[in-house]
């Protein structure tokens, strides 16, 4: 049975999302680059930053956002706005030498990964209004109920339980029900739970969430293969606090098939309805303190430096890599590190930049004879039809960013080789937290009957390896030093090998033999023993761009916590951090839904003083 949301279509914060903020709204919002004072200054106009800035500005407070990048609609055009291009965005290249894209990306390159064949990888991070939400691949789903219980436990506050966080999920996003007519794929129907989305005025948030209006035919076969090895469709979908089985996921795509980011949603709304000021192409270099209280931020626009001071608070939302960097160059972090760079210590917090958790993923590829998003986009004969479908009806391959994913705890047969330590680490995770996510993907075909190179991936969701972010100088213009710590904990290696074998089991399912063409393409059947599989994974696994927890929330600063449950930084006043860096641990699956909700929660905490 298909559930529907009905009247939720008309909304208070409904926005013209096709083009994002207009030139005139932007220009009138850009203040002269000179010292000024606001109630709040938000550093980083990314996913969390624009959410919190919009809510604070809506309350009538004076608010400025400082963002190093510009507007992606004009800086990069269709690469970042059209969903079908999300996977071919050049910023995704996870290799040391990559095509530079300074208008969208910070161009960060990691330290050599000792657990991953000493590779250095380019780790894309959005340098644009919208931040990660402007370059991500748009999957939107929430964590599990027990993940939130674990969070409440670590944060020492019950406001993080599922029930207590649900209002902030509701407030941030508006769901458009599936368009079955445009999907036009009767073998890819599903059910979902409309009660976990906003259903009425006036609280439906500006972020647009929807189901793809085009179904990738190859994905329908991956759904069959994953079901055959134990992952039946989850009848509620992945927004109700359960992550098990498979589902077509919701995506941050507007009803007219444009990327919905924090910029096209929250910022566009705030520019029209509040006095929010946006300092775009403006770099924050330091948080300023007087007697342990944050009083403002040093910034520079086009090389000219000035200060923005605050009457109330500074909110740091520069993301997993840059928020710890900004804290450290401002005097908050591990004392010995700061002293070695002659940075005066304002708060000695050993946890700043530590605890980095970065899920990795890898795939097994085989040829298939079904078309796919990749094969359609690569076929010159299809270009004009596809473009026309998109332009005239917001549908077709360009309107979709893939979207079939599945979750599981590995079955008993896959766990037999686990060491006692690995088994016990995994047993310590909450009962409803999946260990592996599977993602259906594709590359263009190679001919000889291979229409599509089917790409089935597995992500190791709960890394026990720990990485770090640190600084090499006191200057914000030197890139942060990033070590993801990939596969340095043997438990992650064991889980990865088990997940790899599940990928091969899915490919071997008789249910998809009718569309499979030829032998496995990657890594190929020469890779067989557990030892060979692990070597291959160390050489080929990449990030899924979900790094988090580098300013972990908690209760004990000596033990590594950086912020408390209100997101206030320990040891100072007037400063909060609100972004993926304050997650206490890697969330299962994709984090953006939770980052929006977290920003809504802290905005309310600031405004109500609770
Ligand atoms: C390629 C990619 C694909 C992803 N796919 C998905 C997905 O499908 N689903 C999902 O849920 N999640 C996905 N993610 C993860 C998700 O998008 C991020 O976790 C999330 O956007 C992080 O939000 P944030 O607020 O912590 O930081 P960001 O959104 O990164 O915001 C930080 C902002 O601060 C700015 N900034 C940093 N330093 C300074 C400074 N010194 N001065 C001024 N401004 C500064 C940055 O330019 C940026 O705009 C993906 C991420 C990437 C990169
Ligand atoms: C589902 O239908 C589509 C479109 O007709 C087709 O291309 C695809 O092969 C089908 N998938 C399965 C699993 O039957
Ligand atoms: C901010 O964006 C506007 C509109 O794109 C642009 O005209 C302006 O120059 C930008 N500001 C800076 C400092 O680059
Ligand atoms: C905080 O952590 C430190 C270091 O682990 C520990 O010694 C101390 O007892 C903890 N304090 C509290 C109140 O738990």
Automatic annotation (TrEMBL):
PROSITE patterns associated with the record: GMC_OXRED_2
Biological process (GO), any one: secondary metabolite biosynthetic process
Sequence intervals crossing the membrane: none
Keyword Signal: yes
Domain of life: Eukaryota
Cofactor(s) needed: FAD
The keyword Flavoprotein is assigned to this record: yes
MF GO annotations: flavin adenine dinucleotide binding; oxidoreductase activity, acting on CH-OH group of donors
Active-site annotation: 546 (proton donor), 590 (proton acceptor)
Gene3D superfamilies on file: FAD/NAD(P)-binding domain, Glucose Oxidase, domain 3
UniProt cross-references to SUPFAM superfamilies, sorted A to Z: FAD-linked reductases, C-terminal domain (SSF54373), FAD/NAD(P)-binding domain (SSF51905)
Alphabetized InterPro entries for the sequence: FAD/NAD-bd_sf (IPR036188), GMC_OxRdtase (IPR012132), GMC_OxRdtase_N (IPR000172), GMC_OxRtase_C (IPR007867)
Residues covered by the Glucose-methanol-choline oxidoreductase N-terminal domain: 319-333
Binding annotation for FAD: 545-546, 591-592
Keywords, alphabetical: FAD, Flavoprotein, Glycoprotein, Signal
Signal peptide: 1-19
One Pfam family linked to the record: GMC_oxred_C
Similarity remark: Belongs to the GMC oxidoreductase family.
Protein name (Swiss-Prot/TrEMBL): Glucose-methanol-choline oxidoreductase N-terminal domain-containing protein
Organism name: Lasiosphaeris hirsuta
């Amino acid at each position: 049975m298909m559930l529907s949301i009905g009247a939720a279509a008309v909304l208070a914060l409904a926005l013209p999302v096709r083009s994002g903020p207009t030139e005139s709204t932007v220009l009138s919002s850009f203040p002269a680059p000179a010292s000024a004072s606001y109630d709040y200054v938000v550093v980083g106009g990314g996913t969390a930053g624009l959410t919190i800035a919009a809510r604070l500005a809506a309350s009538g407070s004076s608010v400025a956002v400082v963002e190093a990048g510009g507007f992606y609609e004009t800086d990069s055009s269709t690469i970042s706005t059209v969903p079908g291009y999300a996977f071919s965005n050049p910023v995704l290249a996870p290799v040391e030498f990559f095509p530079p894209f300074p208008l969208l990306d910070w161009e960060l390159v990691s330290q050599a990964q000792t657990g991953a064949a000493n590779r250095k990888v380019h780790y894309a991070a959005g340098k644009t209004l919208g931040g990660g939400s402007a370059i991500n691949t748009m999957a939107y789903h929430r964590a599990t109920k027990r993940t939130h219980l674990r969070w409440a436990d670590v944060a020492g506050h019950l406001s993080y339980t599922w029930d207590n966080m649900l209002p902030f999920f509701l407030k941030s996003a508006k769901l458009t029900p599936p368009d079955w007519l445009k999907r036009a794929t009767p073998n890819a129907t599903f059910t979902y739970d409309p009660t976990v989305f906003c259903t009425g005025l006036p609280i439906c948030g500006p972020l647009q969430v929807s189901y793809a209006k085009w179904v990738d035919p190859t994905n329908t076969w991956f759904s069959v293969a994953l079901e055959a090895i134990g992952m039946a469709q989850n009848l509620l979908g992945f927004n109700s606090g359960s992550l098990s089985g498979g589902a077509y996921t919701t995506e941050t795509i507007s009803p007219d098939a444009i990327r919905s980011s924090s910029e096209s949603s929250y910022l566009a709304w705030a520019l029209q309805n509040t006095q929010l000021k946006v300092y775009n192409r403006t770099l924050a270099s330091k948080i300023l303190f007087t007697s342990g209280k944050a009083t403002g931020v040093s910034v520079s626009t086009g090389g000219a430096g000035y200060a923005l001071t605050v009457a109330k608070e500074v909110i740091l939302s520069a993301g997993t890599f840059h928020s710890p960097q900004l804290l450290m160059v401002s005097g908050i972090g591990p004392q010995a590190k700061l002293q070695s760079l002659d940075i005066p210590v304002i708060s000695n917090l050993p946890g700043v930049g530590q605890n980095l958790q970065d899920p990795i993923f890898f795939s097994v590829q085989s040829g298939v004879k079904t078309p796919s998003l990749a094969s359609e986009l690569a076929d010159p004969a299809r270009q004009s039809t596809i473009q026309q479908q998109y332009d005239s009806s917001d549908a077709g391959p360009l309107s979709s960013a893939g979207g079939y994913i599945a979750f599981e705890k590995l079955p008993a047969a896959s766990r037999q080789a686990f060491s006692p330590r690995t088994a016990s680490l995994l047993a310590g995770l909450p009962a409803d937290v999946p260990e592996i996510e599977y993602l259906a993907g594709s590359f263009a075909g190679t001919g000889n009957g291979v229409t599509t190179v089917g790409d089935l991936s597995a992500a190791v969701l709960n890394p026990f390896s720990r990485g770090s972010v640190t600084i090499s100088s006191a200057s914000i213009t030197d890139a942060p030093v990033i070590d993801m710590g990939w596969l340095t904990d043997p438990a992650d290696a064991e889980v990865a090998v088990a997940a790899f074998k599940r990928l091969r089991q899915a490919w071997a399912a008789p249910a998809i033999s009718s569309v499979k063409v030829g032998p496995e393409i990657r890594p190929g059947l020469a890779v067989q023993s557990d030892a060979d599989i692990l070597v291959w994974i160390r050489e080929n696994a990449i990030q899924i761009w979900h790094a988090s927890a580098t300013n972990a929330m908690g209760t004990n600063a000596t033990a590594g916590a950086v912020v408390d449950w209100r997101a206030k930084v320990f040891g100072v006043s007037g400063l909060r951090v609100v972004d993926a860096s304050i997650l206490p641990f890697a969330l299962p699956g994709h984090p953006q839904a939770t980052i929006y909700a977290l920003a809504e929660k802290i905005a309310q905490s600031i405004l109500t003083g609770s």
